[in-house]
Design goal:
This protein is mostly helical. It is built from 13 helices and no strands. The two termini are 38 Å apart.
Length: 334
């Protein structure tokens, strides 16, 4: 990610668009690796505490979600004072922070989380009386995604990401058409960001207490409620409330889904399955971003929200089908 930010910085200075695209590609690859940190945190905790660990990692993202935009202005001013293109500033700051993250991880992340996870798994096996049994052969990715718990976990994260992106991305344009100033739009987006990240630690604790599936259902309900609220009023406060609930619904779906996925995998299956999961979630996000403008053009915010409502309802129906029509989903707390 640091190398990508540096390359993007140089490309902006040189006016090389292709270089900028490649730099942002590397930037995205690094970010994808960073997303795996939540699963690493889950592996080093006992099963009953995994959601709390994932929640703490997502909560840490609050610092970046709030601090990043606050640094955009000063970094742009610095670039102008230094005689550079103003767009270089944020990428220089991003490169510096990514490099700092690399150093902190490389120097201080000891012992390796994989070894800690193996020790935790061995302790749980001993407590369950299964210690000493040979490890099962890892299943294929196709076989893993054919299982009910993994399907529900994936649906939770993909649908949460899709509905969130679908409504959130178009909201600034919608508010601009309503005559709101940029500052007021930023308040709504800040409320949304708080919903996404600020309560993550409590979300993880709650998931470990009440169960993964119940929290996925709660997340789906919040997504549906936010979709209903978004077009009902053009006043600022209801828009802030709708986008806050949208972020909170995503938070429930993302953390509960990540926890359920981690619970459903053997240690020798996690890396490739979790990577595939995040790729599919990213595709859902891209689908929401690319489609929301077209949907908005066809029917305005009401149509965007109705599409989001239908998709959120699909998650609730799938959760019902998975838990009532088939064997119960095995998850800590359920």
């Amino acid at each position: 990610a640091a190398a990508g930010a540096v390359l993007a910085t140089l490309a902006i200075g040189w006016g090389a668009f292709v270089g900028f695209i490649f730099g942002t590609f590397l930037y995205g690859v690094g970010r994808a690796g960073g997303l795996q940190a939540r699963f690493a945190a889950a592996e080093i905790r006992p099963t009953a505490q995994r959601a709390k660990a994932i929640g703490l990692l997502v909560f840490a993202g609050t610092v970046g979600a709030v601090g990043g935009p606050l640094l955009a202005g000063p970094s742009t001013e610095w670039a102008l004072r230094a005689g550079f293109n103003e767009q270089i500033g944020p990428f220089v700051v991003a490169a510096a922070f990514f490099y700092l993250a690399f150093l902190l991880t490389f120097i201080f992340l000891r012992p390796d989380p994989m070894r800690v996870g193996q020790a935790v798994a061995a302790a749980e096996d001993a407590a369950a009386g299964t210690a000493g049994r040979p490890a099962r052969e890892p299943r294929s990715v196709r076989a893993i995604f054919a299982t009910q718990p993994v399907q529900l976990a994936l649906a939770s994260m993909m649908i949460g990401q899709l509905v969130m992106t679908l409504i959130m991305v178009i909201t600034p344009l919608y508010m601009k058409q309503l005559g709101y100033a940029t500052e007021q739009i930023s308040w709504v987006i800040m409320a949304h960001t708080l919903g996404m990240f600020a309560f993550s630690s409590g979300t993880g604790w709650l998931i470990d207490r009440v169960g993964r599936v119940r929290m996925i259902v709660a997340g789906g309900i919040l997504l549906a409620v936010s979709a209903v609220m978004a077009p009902l009023s053009t006043a600022l406060a209801p828009l802030m409330a709708a986008l806050f609930l949208l972020g909170l619904g995503w938070n429930f779906c993302f953390i509960a889904g990540s926890s359920l996925l981690s619970d459903s995998l053997a240690a020798n299956e996690r890396g490739r399955t979790q990577g595939t999961n995040d790729m599919l979630v990213a595709l859902a996000s891209g689908t929401g971003s690319l489609s929301t403008g077209t949907i908005f053009g066809l029917g305005g915010m009401a149509l965007v929200s109705n599409v989001g409502l239908v998709i959120a309802g699909g998650l609730l129906l799938f959760a019902y089908w998975a838990t009532r029509r088939h064997a119960p989903v095995p998850a800590a707390g359920d």
